[in-house]
Write a structure and sequence with these properties.
four-stranded mixed sheet; mainly beta; Immunoglobulin-like; 2 helices; about 210 residues; Lipoprotein
């Protein structure tokens, strides 16, 4: 039997490696050029407290205070995205007006992602836990999801924190209150932040 020369062995090895590379490259899944966003990849959340009153079902807004937070929990300037040293304080007045809270999730490119959550409204719900009870009331305006809802002030002269937690995969056939203290036992958490609030009488201004 004729022995293979080292040259023939190297040539055969080169052909084998080339074929292996071709097979591997053909078996890889193509990279999606425009992968759709989903509710697992927001970069920023804006929480808008819109002061106003209703004409029928239409909200007549007076002014808006916005809190913005990154997904790592750091508060940022809603316009520049610059990091803030601490959570801003939102002042809420007691009176005939309400404060509609609108929560907006954004991707890193600025796309609004709320639709991804609302498509699964049956398994998502925001809960809002004030650190002091009896100060605020809240009403869901979007089938108990909490991306839109109205706060009203019941007591003035209070400083409190408000935990906002979006839960995923919960059983909404059981109706749970907006301030359910067992909120963190339902489903899993998509998002959580702690806001700082102050309640004042109508017409008062914050001079701090």
């Amino acid at each position: 039997m004729k022995k293979r020369t080292p040259k023939r062995i190297l040539s055969a090895l080169a052909v084998f490696m080339l074929l292996s590379a071709l097979v591997t490259s053909c078996s890889k899944d193509p990279v999606a050029p425009n992968e759709e966003h989903n509710h697992d990849d927001p970069a920023k959340v804006a929480l808008l407290f819109i002061k106003g009153h209703y004409h029928g079902t239409q909200l007549h807004a007076h002014d808006t205070a916005t809190v913005a937070v990154r997904m790592d929990g750091r508060f940022i300037d809603p316009n520049t995205n610059a990091l803030l040293d601490k959570a801003p304080v939102i002042t809420l007045e007691q009176g005939s007006d309400i404060y509609q809270l609108q929560v907006k999730f954004y991707a890193s490119d600025g796309d609004l992602l709320n639709g991804e959550f609302l498509e699964e409204a049956a398994i998502h719900q925001f809960f809002f836990l004030p650190s002091v009870s009896g100060v605020l009331n809240y009403v869901y305006k979007d089938d108990r999801v909490g991306f839109t809802g109205d706060f009203s002030v019941l007591q003035t002269g209070k400083e409190l924190s408000l935990t906002a937690s979006l839960r995923h995969g919960i059983n909404k056939t059981v109706q749970r209150e907006w301030n359910d203290v067992k909120y963190n036992t339902y489903g899993s958490e998509d998002f959580k932040t702690v806001l700082q609030l102050k309640t004042v009488a109508a017409g008062e201004h914050d001079h701090d």
